[in-house]
């Protein structure tokens, strides 16, 4: 049986019989520091196999009768033999696939039709075997911040300035104008904030910018992880470890902390000299979020197209076909020559 996005249940691909999933555990965050000290590791499912692509290094897990096939992230054939899935920090929550493959292909075809001068090889992605549903790993973090800062507060004031200019009669005349100045005063203080759902992609196989553009993710629809969600799909093992993900989360909130500091400094302008932030009450979740993804090679480079398997949002990169551009330019030149010839004769 495989998970059916249309029904949200397990469905037999032969007879069509459906079966409700067992309720997964509640999605409850874990204490970060306790997890670093000792967190139980276990395979993503008891029956899962995993395989690592020799081309891009991505590792995916799947449950038979699903097979490895081609790599979802670089398009290369998988030649390594599957093995039992290695233990990992088990997923806490999953966003089930909601967009069936047929609708994903429709979204993909619409995106492809908007591309000018794309190589014909790109159209292969619009075939049923051109894309695969993969659950990508994410960390999401919750933490409290206390930040002490030093800086300067700028207050605007105005001075009257005298200047000389030439009037319409050619005479030099003196005039005055108001000029804005800024007085700077030292500032120091502290700010605090609670952050939640700081979502960090734990994959290196898909550019982070592309994953960010697939947002929003309807995290309110998260389900407690249940291995049956993997039936018929693949899941990538996280490539960014828990501690490294926290550092990325800190970088993601740095601008918000600086904005908060500027608001606290006040005045008309602000200069931030230093910020020292202490992070506490750190919790995390390991999430699996679904994408339909395709990858292909063109002139030695790998290109990806990813579709949010909840909303249908398409994000991708594309090459340009040199011969199609050359053909279009040649056709345009011929048309110009013909028009010029007709105009010259007349």
Our count of domains comes out at 1
Fraction of residues in H or I helices: 10-25%
Give the overall pLDDT as a whole number.
Answer: 83
Assembly form of the protein: single chain
- Strand fraction equals 35-45%
Report the radius of gyration as a whole number of Å: 29 Å
State the low-pLDDT regions, or none. Answer: 319-329
Number of strands: 15
Distance between the termini: 74 Å
Q: Could you say which structural class the secondary elements and strand pairing correspond to?
A: alpha+beta
Can you write the helix and strand succession as a string?
EEEEHEEEEHEEHEEHEEEH
Q: Which shape, going by the Cα principal axes?
A: extended
Number of helical segments with 4 or more residues: 5
User: What profile does the largest beta sheet have?
Assistant: 12 strands, mixed
Architecture overview:
By secondary structure, the protein is α+β, with helices and mostly antiparallel strands. It has one domain. About 20% of the residues lie in helices and about 40% in strands. It is built from five helices and 15 strands. Strands 4, 5, 6, 7, 8, 9, 10, 11, 12, 13, 14 and 15 form a twelve-stranded mixed beta sheet that branches. It has a three-stranded antiparallel beta sheet with strand order 1-2-3, with no helix packed on it. A hairpin with a 6-residue loop joins strand 2 and strand 3. The longest helix has 24 residues. The chain is extended and about 95 Å long. About 5% of the residues have low confidence.
